[in-house]
């Protein structure tokens, strides 16, 4: 068996306690990142259904088409309405607004 003095020396060795885990993290992270980045390139290679692709092309919304929709709108009579915060009850907040108006 291994002598207790040798085990004690290995536990106190800073290279083994800090260096080896760091080296494993760097090397293991490199292999992990390679696998995850490969998923991105594999997803690009997947062919989509031609029918679905045709529907997607028909539903294209451009910035110019959205601008044409709101070009003639007037924004002089708008109200600033605050939305509820995460800790507030939305129904309670809406009730307060209707009473104040």
TrEMBL record:
Keywords: Membrane, Mitochondrion, Mitochondrion inner membrane, Transmembrane, Transmembrane helix
Predominant cellular place of this UniProt entry's protein: mitochondrion
Transmembrane region(s): 15-33
Region spans: Disordered: 79-101
Pfam families, per the entry: COX16
Signal sequence segment: none
Compartments in which it is found: Mitochondrion inner membrane
Record-given protein name: Cytochrome c oxidase assembly protein COX16 homolog, mitochondrial
Species of the source: Sciurus vulgaris (Eurasian red squirrel)
Gene that encodes the chain: COX16
């Amino acid at each position: 068996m291994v002598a207790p003095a040798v085990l004690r020396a290995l536990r106190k060795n800073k290279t083994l306690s800090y260096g080896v885990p760091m080296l494993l993290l760097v090397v293991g992270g490199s292999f992990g990142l390679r696998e995850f980045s490969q998923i991105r390139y594999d997803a690009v290679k997947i062919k989509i259904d031609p029918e679905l692709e045709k529907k997607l092309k028909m539903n294209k919304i451009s910035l110019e088409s959205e601008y044409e929709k709101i070009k003639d709108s007037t924004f002089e009579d708008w109200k600033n309405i605050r939305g509820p915060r995460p800790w507030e009850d939305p129904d309670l907040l809406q009730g307060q607004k209707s009473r104040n108006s």
